[in-house]
Amino acid sequence: MRKVFLEENFLLESESAIRLYHEFARDLPIIDYHGHLPPEEIAGDIHFKNLTEIWLKGDHYKWRAMRTNGVGEEFITGNRPDEEKFEKWAETVPYTLRNPLYHWTHLELQRYFGIHEILSPLNARKIYEACGKMLQTPSFSVRNLIQGKNVELICTTDDPLDTLASHQRIHRDGYGVKILPTFRPDKSMQAESVIPLNAYIDKMEILTGREIQSFTKYLEALKLRHDYFDQNGCSLSDHGLERMYFKEFTETSLEKIFKKIRRTQELDKGEIEEIKSALLYHFAIWDHEKGWVQQFHLGALRNNSSKAFRSIGPDSGFDSIGDWSQAESLSRFFNSLDSENKLAKTIVYNLNPSDNEVIASMVGNFNDGSFAGKMQFGSAWWFLDQKDGMTRQLNTLSNLGLISRMVGMLTDSRSFLSFPRHEYFRRILCNLFARDMENGELPYDLNWIGKIIQDISYFNAKNYFKF
Question: Taking CA atoms, which of 252, 371, 383, 454 is between 20 and 30 Å from 203?
């Protein structure tokens, strides 16, 4: 029987799937333990002026689609009026069929604004004006948008140089949703670009009040920031890497490399790998000491268009999946920590689907029985954050690990309208289990499988992170 687009049983293909979702998963709170929401906007409890501000600004997923549809950059990151930018997005949406943007766009229109129409140029102005009016009402302030979607906790992504003043303000206000920082030291490791790295170190000197002319002093300053984050409620680190780095290093060699950095002398490939390896190792040791969870996002090939990077900057929709070898360095890195009993709880997110089995099998090597699901193959990420990518990740984890111990979904988003992605994931998850139940590949035990669904959707994360 033909189904209606995005009706209440969307993505649920059987009675079992419907029951699993509506009886066990739908109403659980959301723990969004990795995302890029700006904490200053939560601290200020701002109102967005219109749909372009809240929906298109900073969303490189939509930007890529608009460029592919022939929309000029002036309507994407340029200075055209917001209403015209939205109209160009509305022109693009009908051409996003079978792209996850088509689902996300209409899910968000429904869940936040109660709009069940299909967005197109014909209704763009009406929808833009109606949503603009709603966005000015109290229930559409940033804090109320979050609370309205049953969000229990959000972790932002923060540089070691961040003062965390916005997090402190949110905490002082007694806001009902926990907003916690995540230690993301990528810029402190940019050894392939010594000029911006030097500028970063100079800022670190000012922030810490310490002169930094040696690698030892740099480590001490970074450790101070790691401690500061811990004092402000942080319990996660995160690293965005092309691949894991693992190269033997010595104190003498690192000091020579650091002196070259401070003289703005370019490093060779081996020197870059050595200092990155050393920093990653020390970050991991500190994470273990504090009982943090460490996260690694692997496999993005960034800023492919040098022309666009020069004119628009990073994170603008010109990144893609990379194809680095991952297994050996991951093994050596984890083994070095595990051999010293200093391997923290770890989540590895993979961007290249051809590496799914590599990552899922690798993390399993270092579970030691100290905590259920200590080593995690993280949820489908970025280009894989869609129905097919999620399903492939869930199937790989099922085959090579214990999906029942997975810590579930996250938004990885810069948008305050992105929380229906948790719903999207839960629907896919319920349908996957229900299909096996209907096929006789799993027992028809709604209560037990419903419990597993609840664990993956919420309880595993709550127990794993100990927020």
Answer: 252
